[in-house]
Amino acid sequence: xxxxxxxxxxxxxxxxxxxxxxxxxxxxxxxxxxxxxxxxxxxxxxxxxxxxxxxxxxxxxxxxxxxxxxxxxxxxxxxxxxxxxxxxxxxxxxxxxxxxxxxxxxxxxxxxxxxxxxxxxxxxxxxxxxxxxxxxxxxxxxxxxxxxxxxxxxxxxxxxxxxxxxxxxxxxxxxxxxxxxxxxxxxxxxxxxxxxxxxxxxxxxxxxxxxxxxxxxxxxxxxxxxxxxxxxxxxxxxxxxxxxxxxxxxx
Length: 251
Known about the structure:
CATH class: Alpha Beta
CATH architecture: 3-Layer(aba) Sandwich
Strand order of the largest sheet: 4-5-2-7-1-9-11-12-13
């Protein structure tokens, strides 16, 4: 880790506008996206931030006052985003439809890059898979659905998973995690086990193009900071240790 000083989250993640950013992996993906949007909004003058998904995304309570552009038609969404921008607003949520439990339905993988290239948004943040609220996961055959032309991909893991058994209570698709890590169901989840999955081309790095920057983000690090740091020591490349309550702890 190169620094222990708090940094803006976008700087820690290496995001420079205009950009398409995607989160994959375990719990905390949505929190990261909405925290980024709030950070850019507070900074002012950064252009429109669009939050969307190529899977399904639950809008958190703090995001339910944000303007929505929901529809399958690209022209409709473009018009809605133009209107939101003209109203001086800094963030919008985009989807192809609405599901239950405040969920937004997927846009096509090509839409985020198209939106940036057309000047509809200067940052599109994309939740590219689901984890059913578990802090750790491995992708199924159909996952992740990364946006085309993605610039930065962050594989997310929640620090609360360290020390727990590798089972369905803590892990989404534990059998796939076990297969990638060479582990058994019920084994304790160690930083080394997690690092093996996060860095695997069948795990956290699955489908990440060579043209994209790859980051591992450990969320809720206050729940187990020592294990989070131990994980960071196992990873080659950028690791962000972050807590939604206290802010960024280390990069």
